[in-house]
Design goal:
Blueprint: E1 2-7, H1 14-21, E2 39-45, E3 48-54, H2 69-77, E4 79-87, H3 96-110, H4 112-115, E5 119-124, H5 131-141, E6 147-149, H6 158-171, E7 196-199, E8 202-205
Parallel strand pairs: 1-3, 1-4, 4-5, 5-6
Antiparallel strand pairs: 2-3, 7-8
């Protein structure tokens, strides 16, 4: 699907990030779940490019299907690396460290492959008043997580972000997204061993 997948809660700034660094024009609005299917954009880094996907927002319970979560997590599986966007400015009053914990838990519950994908945290909305304080707390809570602070509003940290994403992609080997599976196929040489008939508005297979 893409080289980089933007994941995170709804309204953390994923679509805005994609719109300012690529030619994509995702829908941006002040309500949740404006993105219902992935938006793709090509990002140019000097003489190179990579494809970024703005993925629909995840919420608690996504690994059990809440908010179409299974479908959205499947999209994340089809990307090479994860850029986890966290609203560090707490624009909706949520705790950024808690948001990160919730989404990481959903990722880990869903798939071992997704859990082990290379991930970097994009600390968005750093122009907001609580950005610096929340970032400091986040780094204390997650000292081993790589964090790139940005403000799409002020265009701060954007160049550093795309250059770092390009570096990570070059360090990340291309691999099969899904392990190969083998199947047994049974074919009936004589008559088909079942019958189908319609009973009113119901199809009956016997």
């Amino acid at each position: 699907l893409a080289d980089v997948g933007l994941v995170g809660f709804p309204s953390v700034g994923k679509s805005t990030i994609l719109s300012v660094i690529s030619n994509a024009t995702p829908k941006i609005a002040a309500y949740h779940f404006t993105t219902l299917s992935p938006n793709l954009g090509v990002v140019r880094v000097y003489d190179d490019t990579f494809v970024m996907a703005d993925l629909p927002g995840l919420i608690e319970g996504a690994s059990n299907g809440v908010g179409l979560g299974i479908e959205f997590l499947k999209h994340a599986m089809r990307t090479r690396i994860i850029a986890h966007v966290v609203d560090m400015g707490s624009s909706e009053g949520r705790n950024p460290s808690e948001d990160y914990r919730v989404i990481r838990e959903e990722i880990e519950k869903y798939s071992e492959i997704l859990k082990n994908k290379k991930e970097v945290v994009i600390a968005s909305k750093m122009d907001l008043e609580d950005g610096s304080k929340n970032l400091e707390e986040f780094k204390k809570n997650y000292p081993n997580v790589e964090v790139i602070p940005i403000s799409a509003f002020n265009m701060e940290g954007i160049d550093e972000m795309i250059e770092r994403l390009m570096e990570i992609l070059k360090e990340t080997p291309k691999e099969e997204l899904y392990p190969q599976e083998s199947f047994k196929v049974y074919k009936y040489e004589d008559n088909v061993p079942y019958k189908i008939k319609k009973d009113g508005n119901i199809w009956v297979v016997s």
